[in-house]
Amino acid sequence: MSRKVIPFVVAFVLICLVMVVAAVFSFSGLATAEKFGSDVAWSQPYFTAESMKVINLMGDDQDELFIQNTENVTIFDGSGNILFSQDYQFPKTTLGDVNGDNREDIVVFYLGDLGYSVDVINSGQVSTLAKSLSIGNPARVAVLRFNSGPQIVLGDSSGLLLSLSLGGQPLWGYKVGSEEIRGLDDARINGQVHLASASHDGSVVVLNQDGQRVWNTNQEQLRRMRAFDFNSDGNSEILTGGEFGAFVVYSATDGTQLYTQSMGQAVSEIREVELNGEPSSREFVVGGKDGGVWAFSFNGATANQLWSGSMSDKVNEISGIDVDGDGAEEAVLGDDSGGVAVFTGDGSRNNLDNHSTGIMRIDVGRLNGERYVVIADNSKVDVNKVNFNSIPGFQYTPLVVGVIVSAVILIIAAILASIPQKPALKVSFQDKSRESLEAERRMLKESIADVERLRKSGEVTGDAYLARLKRLRGDVAENETAFKAAGFPIKVETIQCPNCGGTLELGMDKCEYCGQVLLS
Amino acid sequence: MEALICVGAILLVLVLIIFFYFLNTARKRVSETTSIGKKQLLPVYISLADKPTSIIQGMNKLRLDVQKTEKAGDKWRWIPMLIFFGGIGLMLMDGILFLLGYFSFVFTGGGIALWIAAIVMARGLRKSDSYDLSTRYNGTRDILHTLRDDLKPGSTYLGHLDLTGSLLPTKVARTAKDAQNRETEYFRDEWFALKAKLYDGNILRVSGIQKSKKRKSYLKRSRISGKMKSKPEKFKGTAHDLKVRIVANPDVYKISKTSPTFKEGLDIGKFTVSQLSAEGGMISFVANSPFEEVEHENVLQVLKSAYSLLQRNAA
C-alpha cells in the first residue's frame, strides 16, 4: 500500500472509532448538562431536629411543617410562622390518626413530671393519653393499625416495647434484646399489619397484634431497621443496616434472608426512593457512616445494586423527591458536614448549597400551595425551592466534538501523507558495465587485502577488523549479484552465513562473525 | 484533599511534559550533540563504483532529498502546538459549564483526543527530521568533481564514503589500559577511499583516515566522601591521515627521488608529509594532520604537490 494512502486509512479507522464513541455518548444519554439549584424561601432557627414532616395537622386545607428535637415539638405554617410549640423532656414522636378524624395527630412519648407519658396533639390541642408508664427512656414510638384496631407502640432505650390502646391502656409488652430500640415499623404478612422491631444489639423481631412473636433473629449490632412492601404482594421486606456494614433484607413472613451484602462501613440510613419511576419495582437508597451511597432495586425475590456514589461525610438523611417532574424521584441526601446532594436515577451527583452544620432531616411537601424541600440542620430549618435546569440539545455535543476531532485527524493525516519519505542513507552508485564491475571487484579485493595487512601489522584488531571485512565482503557479494543480473559470467567467491546472514568467503568452515559451523 | 492535590500535580506535570514536547517540536531544530559534545550528523554510507557525473548527480540528489524531507516537515511544525491549544480551548468549554453549575466531561474528552492526535503528528514530524550532512560530504563531492576530467575515459571511480561516524564500536581498532586501569579506545575510521584510473595511465589511490582516541567512562572512589562516582567518557583527541599511492605509467612518467615542493616533513595546507617512498615505480606517502576536519582543498593540494615527483618522459 502506498505510504501516502496509509495515513488516510489509519485516519478513517480512528474517525470511525471516534464517531462511534461520540454516538454512544449522544444516544445513550450519558452526555447531559443538568444542574439542580435551590433558593431558600424561609428559614427558622431550630436545633438538632430528630423528626420532621410536611403534613396537614391543623385541620385547614394547608400542610404545615411539623418538627421535633430533643426538647421541643413545633408546628410551622407555610410561611414559617409558629402555630404550635411545646417543650418536652426526651420526646420521641410519630404521626398517626389517634382520634379517628382521618387526619394525622402527633403522638409524643416523653418523660414528664409524672413519669414516662404519652401526649396526643390534635390541631394544636395537647391531651395526655397516658402517664406513669412502666417503661424506660423514650427511643421510638409508632402508631400501628392492626386488624383489631390501632395501637400505640412505645420503645425504650433498654429494648422494651409497650403497646397502648388509643385510650392509653397498656395492652402488652415485649423485650427486644437489651439495648435501645432502633427500628419500629409496620410490616405486612399476608396483608395483615404486624410490628417489626429491632434493637441496637442486633435483635430483630416481628410481633402480631397481641405482642406475640412471629419470628425473631439476631445479627450484628444494628443502626437502622425499616420495613417496606417493595412489590406490593402483601408481604413486607425488612431492611437492616449494621454497625459493621452488614446490610440484610429479610422476608417479613418468616425472617428468611432475601439479600445480604457487606457495605464496608456502618449503615447510617435506609430509605425508599422511586428512582426509575416504574412503580412495579421499588428502589431504595442506603447511606453509610463514611459517606457511601448505594441504590438498590428490589424485584420481589432479591435486591440488585443499581449504582453507588459517595457523600463527604456520614449520611444522616435520605429523601426521595421528584425534582425535575419526570415522574421518577431523585434521592436527596444530607451528610454530617452539611453537604446536600441530589442523586439522579443513574447515580450522577449534583450538589446543592452546603449548610454550615450537619444535616438532620430532609422532607418534601406543599407549603402555601408550592412544592418545597425542607432541610433541617443542626441549627435551623430551611424551606427551599429546588429547581432543575438543563441545556437543551446538549446530548448531541459529543457528536459535534467528534466531528471536530475527526476533522483534525483528517488534517493530520493529510499533512503526514504530504511529507516525503526519508531518503535511504546507504547508497550505492554502481556502473553496470562489465569493465566497471570488474574494476570494482578488483578494488574490493585490494581493500580486503589491505584490511588483512592492517590486522597483521596490529593496526586494526578485533571488532573493527571484522566489521570492515564484513562490509567489504558484503560489497563483493553485491558485485557478484550485479554481475549475474547483467548476464556476465562470474565465479562466485562468497557465501552467506545461514545463522547471521554475514557474507563469508567460499570454503570457510566457520562463520567469523557468529561462530556458526558451515558445511559447504 | 491530599489525594486530589497529588492527582492534580501529576496531571499538571503531564500537561507540562506534553506542552514542552510540542514546543520543542515547533521550534526549529537546533544542532544536537553526541555524549562527548560532537555535533550529530546524518549517517550516510556511499559505495562509489560509477562514472563521475553519475556519482555527483546522485550525491546532489541525495542532498536535495534530505533537504526536501526536512522542509516538508518544517512547514507544519507549529500545528501540534496549535492543536494542543485547541484541546485546551475545548476543555475550557467544560470549565465554563462548570462555572455555570453544570458538570460535563464531553469537551474534556474531545480535548484529550486532540492532544493524542497532536502527539501522533508531532512524532511523525520528528521522525521526518534529519541531521545535517557532514562537511565531508560536500568536500568529497568537490574532490570527485575536480578529478573528473583527469579520469581515463569510460572508467569509473571506485571506493566509498563512510560518514556513519568515527567513534562507532565497530571502528575500535584497539584498546589499551593505563596505570589506573582506565581503558582507552583507539578508533580508526577510513571514511574515504578512492581508486581511479587516470587519463595519463596512472592509477591513483587515496584514503582518508581519521584516528581518534577516547577514554571510556569509569568508576572512581571520591577522596572526600568515599562514595563511588562515575566519571564520564572523555574524548582525548583526533588526527587525520591521508594515505596516497600513485602507480605511475612508465610510458609517460619517470619518478624523481626528490622535489623541493614535495618531500618528507613538508607542510602542505593542514597536512605534513610524514612518510614518502618513490621506489618500485610508484609514489606512496602518508600525510598527517592534527585537525579533526580537513578541507577538500587541502587534499587536492597534497595530490597536486605529489605530482611534482613525476617527470614526463621525453617525447
Entry keywords:
heterodimer; A: 520 residues; alpha+beta; four-stranded antiparallel beta sheet; 4 helices; elongated; B: 315 residues; nine-stranded antiparallel beta sheet; two-stranded antiparallel sheet
Write the topology of this structure.
The complex is a heterodimer of chains A (520) and B (315).
Chain A: H1 6-27, E1 34-45, E2 51-55, E3 64-68, E4 72-76, E5 82-87, E6 92-96, E7 105-112, E8 115-122, E9 125-133, E10 138-146, E11 149-156, E12 160-164, E13 170-175, E14 181-189, E15 192-199, E16 203-207, E17 213-218, E18 222-228, E19 237-242, E20 246-251, E21 257-262, E22 267-272, E23 282-288, E24 292-298, E25 303-310, E26 315-321, E27 330-335, E28 340-343, E29 349-351, E30 359-367, E31 370-377, E32 380-390, H2 397-418, E33 426-430, H3 434-456, H4 462-486, E34 494-496, E35 503-505
Antiparallel strand pairs in A: 1-32, 2-3, 3-4, 4-5, 6-7, 7-8, 8-9, 10-11, 11-12, 12-13, 14-15, 15-16, 16-17, 18-19, 19-20, 20-21, 22-23, 23-24, 24-25, 26-27, 27-28, 28-29, 30-31, 31-32, 34-35
Helix pairs in contact in A: 1-2, 3-4
Chain B: H1 2-26, E1 44-50, H2 52-74, H3 79-99, H4 106-127, H5 135-147, E2 157-163, E3 172-177, E4 183-197, E5 203-215, E6 218-221, E7 228-231, E8 234-247, E9 253-255, E10 267-268, E11 271-277, E12 282-289, H6 296-306, E13 310-312
Antiparallel strand pairs in B: 1-2, 2-4, 3-4, 4-5, 5-8, 6-7, 8-12, 9-13, 10-11, 11-12
